[in-house]
Amino acid sequence: MEKVFHPANSRGKADFGWLKANYSFSFANFFDPNKTNFGLLRVLNDDTVAAGMGFGTHPHRDMEIITIPLSGQVRHRDSMDHTKVVKAGEVQVMSAGTGVEHSEMNPSQHDLNMLQIWIFPEKQGLEPRYDQKNYEHLLQKNELIDLVTPKSDQKEEAVWINQNAYLKLGEFESGRKIAYNLQNQEHGVYIFLIDGSLKIDDHTLEKRDAMGVWKTSSLTIEVLKQSKVLLIEVPMS
Fold it and tell me: Which positions in this protein are listed as binding Fe cation (predicted)?
């Protein structure tokens, strides 16, 4: 097993007043040659957006973009004629493909905290698409649920992307163990701890810490205190 540990305080940071951002990988003005990506996972941004503020219209292409609000809500508008509000408890996917423009605004009177995840697609030049689903009703203590799956392995309750990647989310009680089997031995899994405390081998993860693991077919995670964890499994090349 190979692994890399990314403590929360090693993330890139930006504070624009209306936006407080934490970058797990090189992004915008943050560059770390050792943190450009994890396999085909290119971006994991932990953004807090002030009330009434947000990202104006901007373009994307050839990227699978996943948004997971942790608290608050985001209003999405795009050049595919979608105007949607995505709330905590929902997951959104936008396949940028040949090109799309969109804006993301916080329409509420409270801060929005969201994870923005970019994964390289299986090929370039795909048709842009949009989807979102509510997952809150699926959450059960001490179980992982599917948030995102590949198109080839679609689940009714999950959104899908154009890549052989899986996102799973779970809330676990102290003392539990998470046994995770990778879908493919050529994959790795990036464990992002939203809240709580975990132990993986000899590493203890606290809130917003992360660890990437590869060259293994399975993984055991010890839950040290009540935790909410996101697992991102991606091809490593």
Answer: 58, 60, 102, 104
